[in-house]
Amino acid sequence: MAKLLIDRKAHKRKAHKRDGTHVKSSSVGRARFRTKDKPGRTPKSKRWYEHKVETGWEKGMPTMKRRRLVLRAHKGDYLASGRAMQALVNVTTDKPTRVRARSDALYFFREHKIRSK
User: Fold this and answer.
1) Count of alpha carbons within 13 angstroms of residue 87, beta-carbon side
2) 3, 7, 106 from 34: Cα distances, Å
3) Given this model, what pLDDT does residue 16 score?
4) What is the crossing angle of helices 95-115 and 63-73, to 10°?
C-alpha cells in the first residue's frame, strides 16, 4: 500500500509563559513527510482501550441475554453498563458489533434515566 505524503505549512509559534518563565517565539518551517503505517490504521502498540470488567458479551447472543450478562457484571448499575457498552461502540471497527453495542448502551441509559427518577 502506498504511503501518503503530508504537507505541513510553515507558521510562527507565539511567545508564551511556562511556569513563570518566558518562552520566546520561534518559526516552524514547511515540511513534507510520509506516513509510517497504513492510512486509517492504528498500530497495535498505540491501541489504548482495555475493558475493566469481563462481561461475557458477544454480538451473536440474543438481546436479553447480552444485556443480562452486562448488567450482572456491573452489579446492577445501569449507568456503568451503558458506559461500558458506549466505550465498546467508540473503539470497535466491526459494524454488527457497533450496532448491537449501541442499542444495548441506549437501553441501559434509558433504563437508568427511568429508574433514577
Assistant:
1) 12
2) 6, 9, 40
3) 79
4) 60
